[in-house]
Structures are given as structure tokens and as C-alpha cells.
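Posting for a labmate who doesn't have an account.
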Amino acid sequence: MMIFGITGTIGSGKGTAVQHLKEVGFAHYSARDFLFEEVMRRDMPRNRDSLNAVGESLRATHGPSYVVDALYERAKQVGDDAVIESVRTVGEVESLKSKGAYLIAVDAEPRTRYDRVLWRASDTDRVSSESAESGRMNIPACMKRADFTVRNDGTVEELHRQVDRILATVGRT
């Protein structure tokens, strides 16, 4: 079983990288979906502020790697190659790496990311200044710990080629 975690900036193309991994046979486990399950249980608004608040609450109660650990356990039970999307804390990175997982960071130029966020106009893209870099989350620190970094300023095909090179590097073709 091979596990990749995905981290990166808002609008960088993490979801597009994940979609490609799914197309080549990886099961997908989403931290966002995991947190939204809890947001719905708590009857909170469906937005990034709620995601951040729930994530902070779960991490404070269960430990800094709780979200990713729960998703890792789900993946382990299935036993297939998997990608865990939206690694957000250094604790999550450290936990994944201790289990032998690889971390891919996805980034793009700020203007490109901004244009993508405007284009997709999802509820979670309505970000308050307070939630932009909340509490224990530290995307830049996570990205610095990545095994691989993908620059996604070009086409989708270019992104796919970068992900394919990563797969070849780790021996999965």
C-alpha cells in the first residue's frame, strides 16, 4: 500500500492533482469531507471558517494529527494505494511520514490561485482574515516538509506529467 498526502496553498490545484491520482488507481480520502461530516453534525455553516473551527476542536481534543490519522486508518483498512487530501498541520505531516507516506506540496503563483478561487466560487473560498492561517495550521511549514513539490502554473496536462514523474520516482508507474 502506498499513501500520499497532499498539501498546498488555496487554489493551487490540490484537487486536480488528487483527481489525477484517482484516475491512476489511488483511493481518495478527503480531510475536507471528514471535517464537513463533523460540521454537519454540529449544525454549523458550511464554510472555511467552520472547517477550521472543527479541525481545531478535533485536534485540541484528540491530538494534532487526529484528522489525518483517522483517514490513514480508513485507507489502511481498505489496503489500496491512497491519497489523503488537505494535510494542514505539521503534526499531520509528521504522522504521515512516520507511517511511510509521501507528502506532495502543490503551489502556484498568487494571481493564478486567486483567479482559480474566483472561478470556482465555492463556499469554502469565502475566507475571513481571521481564518486565513488559523491556529495550529501552518501550510508553509507543511509545504517545506514535503517530499515533492509541484508547481501548477501551467496546464492540467503539465500538472499530470509532474505527478506521473513523482509516481515513477517512488516506483509506481
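Reply:
Got it, the C-alpha cells are right above this. Strands lie at 3-8, 27-30, 82-85, 102-107, 148-151.
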